[in-house]
Write a structure and sequence with these properties.
Largest sheet: 2 strands, antiparallel
Helix content: 55-70%
Number of strands: 2
Strand order of the largest sheet: 1-2
Structural class: mainly alpha
Shape: elongated
Low-confidence stretches: 124-134
Radius of gyration: 20 Å
Number of helices: 5
Distance between the termini: 5 Å
């Protein structure tokens, strides 16, 4: 008795997301995985930078300086995420998604996080295993 299993039908490597009112297709390759990891690391470092801030030192700055500092951090986050979306969802997709999010870097980060959470789960699913008995 032979058991035939079609692995091809079990790999989830092609994704279709609906983001900013448009269908966005992506094939999860090694290059995509590395780019995804790069963005996650960059955003993580920026977040760490925020968490390590010396509140006393920041509080000594005037409000305009504080806002400028935060604005620069938001720009760094956008500059990490938008090129990823452009590369994998098409030219200007990152800008379109950012504008759809009402130019909110936080919302853009959430969208990226949702995409990343799906891509981080590439695996074989047993529910798609088909067994054939002879």
């Amino acid at each position: 008795m032979a058991i035939n299993i079609n692995i091809d039908n079990q790999l989830a490597l092609q994704y279709s997301f609906k983001i900013a009112g448009a269908k966005r297709d992506l094939t999860f390759t090694d290059e995509c995985a590395l780019d995804l990891e790069k963005v996650q690391l960059e955003v993580g470092k920026i977040t760490d930078e925020i968490n390590k801030l010396d509140d006393t030192k920041i509080d000594e700055e005037d409000v305009e300086s504080q806002l400028g500092f935060i604005s620069d951090l938001y720009a760094k986050i956008r500059n990490a995420i938008i090129p990823f979306f452009d590369k994998y969802f098409g030219d200007n997709a990152g800008k379109d998604i950012y504008e759809y999010c009402h130019e909110s870097t936080r919302a853009l980060s959430v969208v990226f996080g949702k995409v990343a959470s799906y891509l981080d789960k590439v695996e074989v699913t047993s529910s798609k295993v088909v067994e054939y008995k002879k």
